[in-house]
Amino acid sequence: MRLEQQYFFVSASIHDAIRVFYPGQDKPDLTTFPDKIVFQLNDTHPVIGIPELMRILIDEYGYDWDTAWSITTKTFNYTCHTLLPEALEVWPASLIGELLPRHLEIIEKINAQFEAELKAKGVAADAIKDMAIYTGDAVRMAYLATYGGSHVNGVAELHSQLLKDVTLKNFSDVYPDKFTNVTNGVTPRRFVKLANPRLSDLITEGLGTDKWVADLELLKGLEPLAADDEFVKKFAAVKQANKVDFANYAKREYGFDIDPNTMINTMVKRLHEYKRQALKILAVIARYADIKSGKISADDVMPRTIVFGAKAAPGYYLAKQTIQLINNVARVINNDPDVKGKLNVYFPWNYNIELAMNLIPATDLDEQISQAGKEASGTGNMKFALNGAMTVGTLDGANVEIRERVGAENFFLFGMTVDEVDALYAEGYEPKKYYEADPRLKAAIDMVSRGAFSNGDRNTYAPLVAVNRSLHLGEAHWASPLTVQRLRLCALTPRA
User: Fold this and answer.
1) 256 plus 339 within the same structural domain
2) What are phi and psi of 126, to 5 degrees?
3) Quick one: DSSP state of residue 415?
4) Are 25 and 143 contained in the same domain?
5) Are 222 and 360 found together in one domain?
6) With contact defined as beta carbons under 8 Å apart, do 334 and 295 qualify?
7) Is there a domain that residue 241 lies in?
8) Burial class (CB in 10 A: 0-12, 13-18, 19+), 213
9) Within a domain: residue 136?
10) CATH number for 120
11) Are residues 150 and 208 in the same domain?
C-alpha cells in the first residue's frame, strides 16, 4: 500500500506538471522540462519518481535513453533528512517487480549504467558493490536518489557534513560537487505572527517595523532591548499571558489542570530512542524520588510543569512503551499530594499544528537533547527559540547553528559532542557502569523496574528498563527571574 501511494502521488505530480507547463500539446519539447520545474525529493518516499519520469519520457513521448536520463537528472534534487540507515527506504525487488515491472526494468538499467560509470572512474569493485542501487534482491531508494538527481543536501551544517562523511560517504567521494547543505527553516508568519500575536506585536513595537516577519535578520535589532528593564517586563508579561491561554486550552481540549504560574518545560519531538524522551522521563522520576525520599524539600523545588508531545511509528515497540511509561508517570505524580503544585507531567495526545500553536508560545524551557550525531536538524528547536523559550540541547542538528546565532551564553549546552560519542563507542561503551555510578539514575530506573508506575507489575517495562540503563541525567541551573527573561529575549535574536 505504501509503495502504491508513493507511485500514485509522484505519477500524478509529473503528469500534472507536463499538463500545466505544456498546455494542449500532444508532443511537447520536454527537453525544456528542467527549465520549467525541479522536483525536490523530500526523503526517499517520492524517489520512485525517477524511474517514473524515465518511463514517461521513453514510453509515452519516445525519447531515447540518454536524452531521457539527461532530462531526469536535471529535474530532481534529493533532500536527505536522516543519518539512520534504517530510515532510508529499501524496497524488495520482488515487490517492485510485481507492482511496477516496467519501473524495475528501468531501475536495473540505471544501476548497470551507474556501475559502469563507477568502474570507469576507477572505483574499487568492493565499493561498487556497496553502492549498488539494485542488488538483485532489493532497491536502495536513497542511492537511486543520490545518483539520479543533480544535488543532494542535508538539513543542517552538521548533518550535511555527517551525510558526506558517514551515511553517503562512498557517493560523496565520487561525486563531491553534488553535495550541499540547506538548513531547515520555519515560517515566522505561522509560528510567531499567527501563533503568538502578543509577541509579534511586541517585536514590531521594539523594532519599529513589522518587516522582520519576512527578514529575521532584523531581529538583531532586539539585542539592545535585552538590557531595557521595561521591555523585558513587557516580554515577561507576554509569556505569562500565553501560559494562561495555554492552561485554558489544555483544560478545554484535554481536561488538564495546568498551573500557568509554574515553569512550563516542554519536550516535543518524534518519539525515538535517540531523541531521548526516556532520558527526560527518568530525570522527572529522579526528581520525584528525591522529593519523596526527603533528599530535597518540595518547598525548594521550582514549580515545574513538564509537557511531552510526540508520535511514534505504529510498529515501534520501545517507543510505544516510552509513551505508556510517560503517561503512567504522569498519573502517579499528578495524583500525589506530596508534590502537588511543584511537579506535574502531561502528555497531550495527537500532537498537531493546533496544539503546537498553543504550546510553543507558552513554553519557558525547551529540551532538544538528542544523542549527538543522530539528529538531522529539527524544526521544533527553531519554533521554540523564535517564541522566546530557552533551550537545553546537545550540539546536534540545527542546535549547532542556533547556538552560534543566539550566543553560547543564551543556550544551555547538554551532553556529549559527536566526537565524544564516537570516542566513547570506540573505547567500549558499558551502560551498566553509568547505572551503577549514578545513584539518582539507579533509583529512577529501579522505581520503574519495581513496578512503581505499572501497579506493581515488574514485567511491564522490562525491555525499556534493559535498554535505558544506558542513560545519565542532566539538570539546568537557574538565575534570577529578570535574568531569565533577558535570556529568553536573547534566545530569539540571531547574532551577527
Assistant:
1) yes
2) -65, -40
3) S
4) yes
5) yes
6) no
7) yes
8) middle
9) yes
10) 3.40.50.2000
11) no
Q: How many CB atoms lie within 10 A of CB 165?
A: 10
* 496 located within any domain: no
C-alpha distances in Å from residue 283, one per residue of 332, 356, 391, 438, 456: 15, 24, 16, 12, 21
C-alpha cell at 379: 524544526
Contact 496, 218 (CB under 8 A): no
The pLDDT profile of the chain, 496 residues, written as one tens digit per residue, is 889 999 999 999 999 999 999 999 989 999 999 999 999 999 899 999 999 999 999 999 999 999 999 999 999 999 998 887 777 899 999 999 999 999 999 999 999 999 999 999 999 999 999 999 999 999 999 999 999 999 999 998 888 898 999 999 999 999 999 999 998 889 999 999 999 999 999 999 999 999 999 999 999 999 999 999 999 999 999 999 999 999 999 999 999 999 999 999 999 999 999 999 999 999 999 999 999 999 999 889 899 999 999 999 888 899 999 999 999 999 999 999 999 889 999 999 999 999 999 999 999 999 999 999 989 898 999 999 999 999 999 999 999 999 998 889 989 999 999 999 999 999 998 888 989 999 999 999 999 999 999 999 988 998 888 765 544 433 333 344 444 444 555 555 544 2
Place of cell 561498487: 128
Partnered with residue 41 across adjacent β-strands are: 78
Whether 392 and 280 map to the same domain: the answer is yes
Residues 361 and 387: their CA atoms lie apart, in Å, by 5
Residues 336 and 274 in one domain: yes
All cell numbers assigned to 17: 506538471
Tell me which H or E stretch contains 231.
Answer: helix 229-254
Helix (H, G, I), strand (E, B) or coil at 398: coil
pLDDT at 464: 83
Same domain, 323 and 232: yes
* Spatial distance between the Cα atoms of 388 and 393, rounded to a whole number of angstroms: 15
Q: Which domain holds residue 293?
A: 188-491
Please report where in the chains the cell 489544555 appears, as a residue. 250
Which residue carries 505569562 as its cell? 240
In the block, cell 539494485 appears at 134
Instruction: Write down which residue in 121, 150, 181 finishes a domain.
Output: 181
Phi, psi at 227, each rounded to 5°: -100, 5
Please give the model's pTM, rounded to 2 decimal places.
Answer: 0.84
Task: Tell me the sheet residues that pair with 238.
Answer: none
Within-domain flag for 389: yes
Please check whether residue 192 is in contact with residue 222, taking contact to mean a CB–CB distance below 8 angstroms: no
Count of domains observed in the chain:
2
C-alpha cell of residue 308: 511531552
3-state SS assignment for residue 154: strand
Nearest-angstrom CA–CA distance, 377 and 379: 7
Can you list the positions of beta strands (E) in 173-229? 179-181
What positions carry a catalytic annotation? Answer: 81, 269-270, 275, 379, 383
* Domain end point (choices 181, 196, 212): 181
Q: Are residues 344 and 419 in the same domain?
A: yes
